[in-house]
Amino acid sequence: MNYLSDIEIAQHKKLVHIKHIAEKLGIDEDDLEMFGKYKAKLPLDLIDEEKIKKNNLILVTAITPTPAGEGKTTVSIGLTEGLNKIGKQATVVLREPSLGPVFGIKGGAAGGGYSQVVPMEDINLHFTGDFNAVEKANNLLAALIDNNLQSQCCNIGLDPRTILWKRVIDMNDRSLRKITIGLGGTSNGIPREDGFNITPASEVMAILCMATDFEDLKSRLGDILVGFTFDKKPVFARDLKAENAMAILLKHAIQPNLVQTLEENPAIIHGGPFANIAQGTNTIIATKMGLSLSNYVVTEAGFGADLGAEKFLNIKCVAAGLNPKCVVLVATIRALRHHGGANNEEINIPNVANVAIGFSNLEKHIENIRKFNIEPVVAINTFDSDTIEETNFIINKCKSIGVKAVVSENWAKGGEGTIALANAVVNIVESNQSTFKPLYDWNMPVKQKIEIIAKEIYGADSVDFDKKAKLNLKRIESLGFNDFAICMAKTQKSFSDNEYLRGRPEGFVVTVREIEIAAGARFIIPILGQMMRMPGLPNNPASEGMTIDENGVVAGLS
């Protein structure tokens, strides 16, 4: 059977003016800051804390990712369509895509099939310029740092060897991971080693996602730890008088973006940190905006539940005082075959035995969600290679542990394909089965918080701290940052820190190589294994398959 591609489906959709989508949320056209006819910025004064308490937050997460993909964003959008079809007022709140994956290997993040947010091309490319603003604010601070090193009159004594701040660019470019700057003589600056991260890994992105209002954003920008003086005193962005200029660049970026789904329901898209190296969820402001305007808000957290959901619950929900009512765990039969031992050539071949073995991965994620006192629903995201035997195995196995598993045909049917999933979610919400509680108290010692995540969520036997990590712990103690949340940087491909351990690994030790400080975001980042904050392109980048004709029609974007 020949299917239309995602971009073809999106291009066939006749979009309605964004003012009509705003009307569904009770927003006056005069309150919108238009970006053409189909995109708009929303003012922060629409956030209403009293309404937030009365409405329902649903988190969509997934089992451990596989090369085939699991479809969290597609399910999130489809579930929102389904909730609206059964009479619930629902809005989907998502992250913005990064250009790195768009032109690399993963593709965009606007959903797929008949569960998409549109205009798909705009969302996946420059959108409303938020990523550009984050990048420029980040790099302004980098320029101010190097300018101060060069200054004769205003030098604050920053030791170039201790500088922690890197430049960023929103592209997969491994050649920029480690560079030397300031060459070519005294007029070109102080020579030193530097490097680039990808924009979603910037602390400015993390701060944008954690800020509750503009003043909070500015304060957090000033709290960024830049490095240390020659006499070992900490230097913050505020010491360089950087926070106001950085905030000016983010003046519009702090406002959430309103777009629409293929079925003309509201979608709010804002912020874009990755979940393996950052917190992996949209902004607190966007989620609160959705909850101020809709009875149901569906949001997603990146990669598997051991990363995105854990950070969403332990970091974002605690910081923002959010109370999620249900978690949807997305699984595919292809992914369960993978975790059951199938190689890349075998994941489309029906195999109940592989699915049975791979179920252990899903079961561990179910157990983890329940540790937060939240009841999950399993969404089986369907593919043509699925069989009734494999599907029924998952449904019955989930039933045996008291979990509802529902087939979700969101890709092929949009909202019609998610009505059963929507009803399952509403049943959990309306039965008040969930009373969220975090896994740890932020006031616990840093080492203890890391160990709780590693043992309870990953299933590790113990945690080993390398020499550098132990020194980092002492620095955190001396700076008074012990009460920060923990934002693990770990491979998304396994519960462990070894990407080759599939399924539900046991008997392993997690190794913390080093620990970074995101003082503005107010979390600590333990680095597990050789995690890179600047990805590289694959042998055959997605960009090679893209075209644009003389009329500006794009093909090959996904």
Description:
The chain is an alpha/beta fold. Strands 1, 2, 3, 4, 5, 6, 13, 14, 15, 16, 17 and 18 form a twelve-stranded mixed sheet that branches. It has a four-stranded mixed sheet with strand order 19-21-22-20, sandwiched between helices. A two-stranded parallel sheet has the order 7-10. A hairpin with a 2-residue loop joins β5 and β6 (115-118). α7 (130-150) runs antiparallel to α10 (243-249) and α9 (214-222) crosses α10. The mean pLDDT is 95.
Shape: globular
Class inferred from helices and paired strands: alpha/beta
Distance between the termini: 19 Å
User: Within the CATH hierarchy, at the fold level, what is the topology of the largest domain?
Assistant: Rossmann fold
Count of separate structural domains: 3
Rg (CA only): 23 Å
The CATH homologous superfamily of the largest domain: P-loop containing nucleotide triphosphate hydrolases
The major β-sheet equals: 12 strands, mixed
Instruction: Note the total helix count.
Output: 19
> Mean pLDDT, rounded to whole units?
95
Q: Strand-residue fraction?
A: 15-25%
Query: What is the correct CATH architecture of the largest domain?
Result: 3-Layer(aba) Sandwich
CATH class of the largest domain: Alpha Beta
Please give the share of residues in helix: 25-40%
Q: Extract low-pLDDT stretches.
A: none
What is the number of E strands?
Answer: 24
